[in-house]
Amino acid sequence: MTLQFLIEQIKQKKSYLCVGLDTSIEKIPKHLQSNPAAVFEFNKQIIDATKDLCVAYKINTAFYESNGIKGWEAMEKTVNYIPSTHFRIADAKRGDIGNTSSQYAKAFFDVLNFDAITVAPYMGFDSVQPFLEYENKFTIVLGLTSNKGSEDFQQLKTGDNFLYETVLKKVSGWGTKENLMFVVGATKATELESIRKIIPGNFLLIPGVGAQGGSLEDVSKYGMNKDCGLLVNASRAIIYAGTGENFAEEARIIAQQYQTEMMNYL
Ligand SMILES: O=c1ccn([C@@H]2O[C@H](COP(=O)(O)O)[C@@H](O)[C@H]2O)c(=O)[nH]1
């Protein structure tokens, strides 16, 4: 997918919502659990119920990898089911020496048809570059994450800057806004103002609204740029909004609330 197409989708749908498919077999409604394709069936119904309200889906690969081969099958079926109008993110947080990263890139961009993958930057340029080589695919580098542990390294002062600021400055020179995005947690909304001074043009993937308590209003106020520039993800708050047979309608209600609020900020 091109950046221009993503921006058009955001304008048309008046939404920058990303629905996170962090699907655990233990958490899906009981009536689906005995289905041999339970995870895919759950995701299919969530996608059908929310696709007009969001522009992206984020599959956190851990929830699939933990189920072995069945999990990989569910992930492949899910990514193929997501309409091609939607931005398909593998939240896999990969990154290794160059020849290994190129295998990760092949796995997620060629074998599985994702548009984007999250990448950890701490092994440096050669670990990120193989992902950036793909045309019309996006590398989403971890910038300032939503968790408390971001204090341990990312928020360490190194000279005049925090380490995450050095990472954003350096990594932003490795790609363009056409192939490079960054993760910034919604729980770090107030830092978005200074982050935007470092990376004014790149899209940001913002997890952490909903279950982690981040504010959609604040991330929109501090993080938006002229292209919108945001994909705000909610996973548990949407997909587990309901526990019964009408779980997909319940998910839709929450997704609708986010989209309605987003209309005010666009
Ligand atoms: O900084 C980060 C980076 C990634 N995540 C991931 O996003 C979702 C959030 O799920 P919720 O249920 O909406 O809290 C999940 O897949 C995380 O692994 C993040 O939360 N923070």
UniProtKB/TrEMBL annotation:
Pathway: Pyrimidine metabolism; UMP biosynthesis via de novo pathway; UMP from orotate: step 2/2. The keyword Ligase does not apply. Residues 16-251 form the Orotidine 5'-phosphate decarboxylase domain. It catalyses: orotidine 5'-phosphate + H(+) = UMP + CO2. GO terms for molecular function: orotidine-5'-phosphate decarboxylase activity. The keyword DNA damage does not apply. One of its GO terms (biological process) is 'de novo' UMP biosynthetic process. InterPro entries: Aldolase_TIM, OMPdecase_type-2, OMPdeCOase_dom, RibuloseP-bd_barrel. Keywords: Decarboxylase, Lyase, Pyrimidine biosynthesis. It is an enzyme of class 4 (lyase). It holds the Pfam family OMPdecase. Its EC number is 4.1.1.23. Belongs to the OMP decarboxylase family. Type 2 subfamily. This is Orotidine-5'-phosphate decarboxylase.
